[in-house]
Amino acid sequence: MWQTYLYPLTYLLLILLPAPLLGRYIYNVFEGKTHWLGPIERLTLFICGSDGREQHWRGYLQSLLAFNLAGFLLLFIILIAQGALPFNPEQLPGLNWSLAFNTAVSFMTNTNWQAYSGETSLSYFSQMVGLTTQNFASAATGAAVAVALFRGIARQQTTSLGNFWVDLVRFNLYILLPMALIMALLLVWQGVPQSLSHYLSFIGVEGNEQVLPLGPAASQIAIKQLGSNGGGFFGINSAHPFENPTALSNWLEMVALLSLAAAMVFTLGRYVKDMAHSRAIVITMTLLFLTGLCITLGQEQAADPNLHQLTTQAGNWEGKESRFGPILSSIWAVATTSASNGSVNAMHDSLTPLGGMMAMFNMLLGEVIFGGVGAGIYGMLLFVLLTVFLCGLMVGRTPTYLGKRLGIAEMKWVVASMLVMPVGVLVLGGLTLLLPNTAAVIGHPGPHGLARLIYAYASGAGNNGSAFAGFAAADSGQCIFIGLTMLLGRFGYIVPVLAIAGQLARAPRQEVSDSDFPLSGPLFITLLIITILLIGGLSFLPVLALGPIAEHLMLGAL
After folding, report:
1. How far lies 409's CA from each of 120, 500, 503, 507, in Å?
2. Is residue 398 part of a domain?
3. Each residue of 70-102: b (16+ CB within 10 Å) or e?
4. Is residue 558 in a domain?
5. Is 276 within a domain?
6. Angle at 472 between CA 464 and CA 478, to 5 degrees
7. 206 lies in some domain
8. In terms of residue numbers, what domain contains 505?
9. How many domains does one find in the chain?
10. Is 0.90 surpassed by the pTM of this model?
């Protein structure tokens, strides 16, 4: 079908064409070259108590941790006390402590893992003041960390990386808020509700009384996509006709979830004054994205051998929203797991085994294929540093990156960051298999049950937030375990990244010579892809073989 080729091409063009301009705008915002909201910026910083002075990497990290801890505590209290707070027309009670902990950690870490259904569990106040606020804060936190790393690479013989509070306010004020406002208005135009009214009762076609949930959905959906947060206002997420009512809203949301992440790569080029390097990273991300998309499209458009006798229509339509079908659902699945987004417009549990494995594999790589806002590019730069270091060792030269020598201190932090996903998925996920209620948690005794478990912990450690249906996410033990996994997946990268930024900022810059390892061109792109696949993916080959690969080999054997 022509859509198989046209839709992916159109999608990539809509993301990549505006990225250089948007990346330059982001650079101007962070460097204080954009002032159209200057009075509001100064007032906000005054309220925050920040004098704007630049910080050492430890000071930057301390401010970041204090801000995120305060956000976690505020959201936790809101969720616990929900029943006594305003804007609760359905009189929904507060969440239990384990679910509140899981949800507060989830939104604070930009994961948006949801072990509940929004319309039956959370009040309008919790959705607006609690979750939507954290969607802005967590996205801005990721962008601030990325820019601190960019400054560390670009500067020399200094201990300053900028000011966390200034970076946080500027990204929210000049980028997220205007874009989210425009996006929310477009979604309201397309039919997404933005209301504080009671749920509506009506008589269904079978004569039974039913309830139509409403709420301030458009504002939360706008920022959940732009901030690469994910999650859903309603339980079935972007497959819900109120979250995603039209073909245009589907395209708007798909494009929004990767636009800022792609632009941040070009922001790096502005800081280091090497746009060719940014283009090489974007090409790497795009090639990995297309590889996963081609595999997923091929699998999802092939007939299920267990079901093909029941239908004459090609493709795996089971679990797909009928308005979107296998092609748009495949693009969304690959895009949302390439980013730390997690919103879905189809049931990922119904993907074919290899289609589901590609979504899983995108997360297991650390979600560096565009990735989350800020988080994707600083995760990718860790692989870039590792690639440069390994290539330097192979040719017997001191590894240098953009004129900065890579020493033992920097590489220790890089190696530490590479352990985050294996520990989060294989160790914490493996502990779940030792629990007495494992069978009830994963809900399937065969390879698909293991795939559900791998997916859940990859989603937690990758700060994604999507899941295979059937996994008992609301189980109290899983709320705690996955909550800890999300914390590891967020701060297990942030701490090394800021430490590396501090080390690089202090280092003097050397003149770049022709003998240095090239940071653009086919050789760099090829070696970077090999490093990502070998270091990022090889650790998980055994569990993938026992889960989705084994399930694929069993197709047709039923």
Report:
1. 49, 8, 8, 12
2. yes
3. ebbebbbebbbebeebeebeeebebbeebbbbb
4. no
5. yes
6. 70
7. no
8. 3-7+14-201+211-553
9. 1
10. yes
